[in-house]
Amino acid sequence: MNDEMWTFARFEPGQSFGTVTIPLDAERVAGWAAIYGAPQGDAAPDGLIVAGMMEAYIRAIQPRPKGNVHAAQKLAFSGAACRIGEEVVYHVSVLSAEEKRGRNWVGFGIRAEAGGRDLLRGEILSIWAA
Asked: Which of 34, 50, 72, 82 is deepest in the core (most CB within 10 A)?
């Protein structure tokens, strides 16, 4: 693991942070159920996939400076089903990095898949602090 802080100057469009694998195991589903109620059947709720997207982003880009702002996110679900018990693989990359109005804007792309099926394509737009 690289201990160098992720500053704005280090981001390049097209840059990959690799993958983060998150199992939809009993522990994760129990945590979800404690907040939102038990999922119906064996289908994983879309929100659980989105929560994994946020976790993958946090885990993939470490360490980060304090003071970043989550400015926006976009989600596009493929419609493919994901089952509880499957592992979801999240691919994290940089889509854009630009300075606008004195702020550092970074767009991150996240693609989620399970069993070779695309589940979600998302974008996280951050105002990067340093």
From this structure: 82
Q: How far is CA 90 from the centre of its chain?
A: 7
CATH class of 15-128: alpha beta
Task: Say if CB 105 and CB 126 are below 8 A apart.
Answer: yes
Judge residue 120's burial from the number of C-beta atoms within 10 Å of its C-beta, 0-12 exposed, 13-18 middle, 19 or more buried.
buried
Q: What pLDDT, in 10s, does the model give residues 35-83? A: 999 998 999 999 999 999 999 999 999 999 999 999 999 999 999 999 9
Q: What gap in Å lies between CA 92 and CA 95, rounded to an integer?
A: 10
pLDDT band at 2 (very low <50, low <70, confident <90, very high): low
Are 125 and 71 in contact, with CB atoms under 8 Å apart? yes
Could you give the CA distance from residue 21 to residue 39 in angstroms, rounded to a whole number? 21
Q: Round to whole Å and give the CA distance between 97 and 13.
A: 6
Q: Can you name the residues that pair with 70 across neighbouring β-strands? A: 126
